[in-house]
Amino acid sequence: MSSEVARGRILFSTLVALVLTILPLPPAGEYIRPSFLVLTVLYWSVAAPRTAGVGLGWFAGLLLDVFQGPVLGQHALVLALVSFITALEHQRIRSKPMFQQSLIVLFVLAFYNGVVLAIDGWTGHPLPNPLLWIQCATGALIWAPAATLLAQGRRV
Amino acid sequence: MAAFGTGGSRSQVRGPSLGFRFTLYAILSIVVMFLDQRHGWLEQARYLLQAGAYPLQVAVNSPSTAWNWLSESFQSRDALRAENARLHKEQHELELRSMRYDALARENGELRGLKEALPPVADRWLAAEIVTDSHRQRILINRGTTNGVFRAQVVMDDKGVIGQTVHVGPWSAEVILITNQEHAIPVTIERTGLRTIAVGAGDESNPNLLGLPYLPGNADVKVGDQLVTSGLGGVFPAGYPVGRVIEVHRDAVQPLAQVRATPYADVDKDREVMLVWFREDHPAAPAAATTTDLKVGNKSLQPQPTPPPRPKATAPAAQPETPATPAPATNTTAPHPANSSAGARKPTSPSGTVNPPPAPSSNRGTGSAPASAEAAPATKEPAPVEAPKNPTTEPPADAPRNP
């Protein structure tokens, strides 16, 4: 697979994930909806750490900031951090069975949320509803199908 | 793993390179955050980003827009007719009311000894549609700088104040709602004339509430009191309806009363809002033309112990070549101390609105302290240009404005 094609696929899936993330939903849906963009970035930094990696995380995070964040650069920093960690450990994560991967994803999403909240508090913005932690669980649940779907895209 | 294809043949990620890239990006984002948060230096970048983001936002929102359009266009004839009748009736009512208003305005002008009634403070209106409704108590509207929208512009609906613009792009603008925890609006209790600040309550069960966290326990406020804008703070003009008090809780232990109000505006139901331009030389106009003047004022205020209420005579001096010009804008923009302690308020302890924050006591006597330069323009600060009131003493804030 040429890296050009892979890059196009990565960008496309990231765009789709962004649309899914900012799609307006009723409040209940907002809390349940997993952060598709973070999941996609996680997947690509595990699957293609050299092509995607930190840069993809940073730009995806910046997009999140533009659409949702009160501070520019907040999600960019945290998503870059998360994708850095997962790209470092991509071999280890890859070799795990799907269930353990989901657990890792749960942990990573919780870490992500925690750092975002810390920056919220540090910059003096109100903390979002604590129900947003549900996102971590739904994200971990959806990891297996999402990873399979993204892998299908890779095989084509 | 199947999910990752045949990744085994891939070469190892080069550790130092990855770490180096991450360090670069981390530094970059911290710099961006700092600039965005502290100085508002990224307005230009924000403008471009907002321009780029707008098409996607419209596209993402198009399904619901399409659904609304469809359901509207397939409304039955009867429903349309009923609505038409209702609107006719409403229009008649409003016309009658506005007739009365004209008479009152004329009478008011006579009482004030003016030759003719003042024009209304609202100069121009522009309807805008809400594009997206975010859960963070901010909305995006479909008007931007190409329509003349500016930053910190007042946004209303037909019932009352909704909020003000925070970031303005070429075709869109982000509006922070008055029910946002980070927003504060200076209000007057209509019945008593008591001035205070209404901030977003930030309730999790009902986010569309206002709190009045700076009222002392013995303040004269009761359920049903009307809140109108007080005209202080430089953004909202005086006399526009904001909300109604729905809950007053006095606790003997707490020095401050806990007061909740519900906004008149249908903050959560609106699909269309109004952007308003105000006459700057009108007595009811907001005090400051905008934030840049405040900035300048702050710089000059910095070393001075007392707030100099700038007399009108200084305005022509600023423009020596046209001494006859009354320079209305600068007249009204004398930096008044109401803005002075805006920076002193702790923005956002999440519990700040539930338990009265200690801000009032720390603000005591800061009437003459200059505002920090960021407080006025950085609308992410909770009270963009508004100051929390000292709850126990009559604030000196209004003295220069209403001599």
Report the oligomer: heterodimer
Helix content of chain B: 25-40%
Mean pLDDT of chain A: 85
The fraction of residues assigned to DSSP E strands of chain B is 15-25%
The major β-sheet of chain B equals:
6 strands, antiparallel, barrel
- Biggest interface, chains and residue tallies: A-B, 58 and 53 residues
Count the DSSP helices of chain A: 8
Mean pLDDT of chain B: 70
Proportion of helical residues of chain A: over 70%
Please tell me how large the radius of gyration of chain B is. 24 Å
Which overall shape of chain B is indicated by the principal axes computed on the Cα atoms? globular
What global shape of chain A is seen? globular
User: How much of the sequence of chain A is in beta strands?
Assistant: under 5%
* Contiguous uncertain segments of 5+ residues of chain B: 5-15, 289-403
Distance between the termini of chain B: 77 Å
Give the H and E element order of chain B. HHHEEEEEEEEEEEEHHHH
Compute the number of strand runs of chain B: 12
In short:
Chain A is an all-alpha fold and 156 residues long. Chain A contains eight helices and no strands.
Q: What can you see in these coordinates?
A:
The complex is a heterodimer of chains A (156) and B (403). By secondary structure, chain A is mainly α. Chain A contains eight helices and no strands. The radius of gyration of chain A is 15 Å and the shape is globular. With 403 residues, chain B is of the alpha+beta class. Chain B has seven helices and twelve strands. Chain B has helices spanning 15-39, 43-73, 77-111, 291-301, 314-318, 328-332, 359-363; strands at 122-133, 138-141, 154-156, 161-168, 173-177, 184-189, 195-200, 210-212, 226-229, 241-249, 258-263, 272-278. In chain B, the strands form two sheets. Chain B has a six-stranded antiparallel beta barrel. In chain B, strands 6-7-8-11-10-9 form a six-stranded antiparallel β-barrel. In chain B, a hairpin with an 8-residue loop joins strand 10 (241-249) and strand 11 (258-263). Chain B is globular and about 75 Å long. The interface between A and B is large, with 58 and 53 residues.
